[in-house]
């Protein structure tokens, strides 16, 4: 999903998703969540959101960084805001170049209503995943908000702002 005025497609691996403008329910949800993240002014809110459904513990996402070109997370400090809804799931983070003696993987459990942020240069220096968990029953929805900073050349938002 994207803010009004953006027409950027989302590409992850071989998957390409056409943008859908934030519906009213998304803006209502954001009006509750964004102030909790220090963003009370709607003009500063993220201009994109991915929604992912994990039907049960058998569904997962492997090690990756949110380093898609449109977000510029490998080159600039960025923020990613994530809301978990549904059953509790593991979220793991590992350094790309761990220091000697550093724990290889850090893990937290994200439950219903938990907000997790990744900020700064996390996407350059770390990878994260939601691993498979055989003992998890029930669905989890994850909403991941980000800022598109390098709009596709044909996107109207590219002409509205200079980044």
Termini separation comes to: 20 Å
Q: What is the level-2 CATH architecture name? A: Sandwich
**Amount of helix:** 10-25%
The CATH C-level name is: Mainly Beta
Count the beta strands. Answer: 10
For CATH, the homologous superfamily is named as: Alpha-ketoglutarate-dependent dioxygenase AlkB-like
SSE order, as H and E? Answer: EEHEEEEEEHEEH
Strand content: 25-35%
Question: What can be said about the biggest beta sheet?
Answer: 4 strands, antiparallel
Computed CA radius of gyration, to the nearest angstrom: 16 Å
Please indicate the count of domains: 1
Determine the CATH topology.
Answer: Jelly Rolls
Count of alpha/pi helices = 3
Task: Assign the structural class, choosing from mainly alpha, mainly beta, alpha/beta, alpha+beta, or little secondary structure.
Answer: mainly beta
The order of strands across the largest sheet is 3-10-5-8
The pLDDT mean sits at 92
GO biological process, one term: DNA alkylation repair
GO molecular function, one term: dioxygenase activity
Organism: Polarella glacialis (Dinoflagellate)
Pfam families: 2OG-FeII_Oxy_2 (PF13532)
Summarize the structure.
This protein has 163 residues and is mostly beta strands. It is built from three helices and ten strands. The chain has a single domain, classed as Jelly Rolls, CATH 2.60.120.590.
What features would you describe in this structure?
The two termini are 20 Å apart. 12% of the residues lie in helices and 34% in strands. It has a single domain (10-152), classed as Alpha-ketoglutarate-dependent dioxygenase AlkB-like (Jelly Rolls). By secondary structure, it is mostly beta strands. It has helices at residues 24-33, 122-125, 156-160; strands spanning 10-12, 15-17, 48-54, 61-64, 78-86, 89-95, 106-110, 115-120, 126-130, 140-146. The strands form three sheets. A four-stranded antiparallel β-sheet has the order 3-10-5-8, with no helix packed on it. Strands 4-9-6-7 form a four-stranded antiparallel β-sheet. The radius of gyration is 16 Å and the shape is globular.
């Amino acid at each position: 999903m994207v803010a009004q005025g953006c027409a950027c497609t989302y590409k992850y691996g071989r998957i390409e998703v056409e943008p859908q403008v934030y519906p009213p329910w998304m803006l209502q949800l954001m009006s509750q969540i964004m102030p909790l993240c220090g963003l009370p002014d709607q003009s500063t809110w993220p201009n994109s959101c991915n929604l992912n459904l994990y039907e049960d513990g058998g569904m997962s996402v492997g090690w990756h960084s949110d380093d898609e070109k449109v977000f510029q997370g490998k080159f600039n400090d960025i923020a990613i805001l994530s809301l978990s809804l549904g059953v509790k799931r593991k979220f793991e983070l590992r350094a790309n170049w761990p220091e000697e003696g550093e724990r290889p993987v850090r893990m937290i459990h994200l439950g219903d209503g938990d907000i997790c942020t990744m900020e700064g240069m996390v996407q350059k220096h770390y990878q994260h995943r939601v691993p498979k968990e055989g003992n998890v029953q029930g669905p989890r929805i994850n909403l991941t908000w980000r800022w598109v900073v390098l709009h596709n050349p044909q996107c109207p938002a590219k002409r509205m702002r200079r980044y």
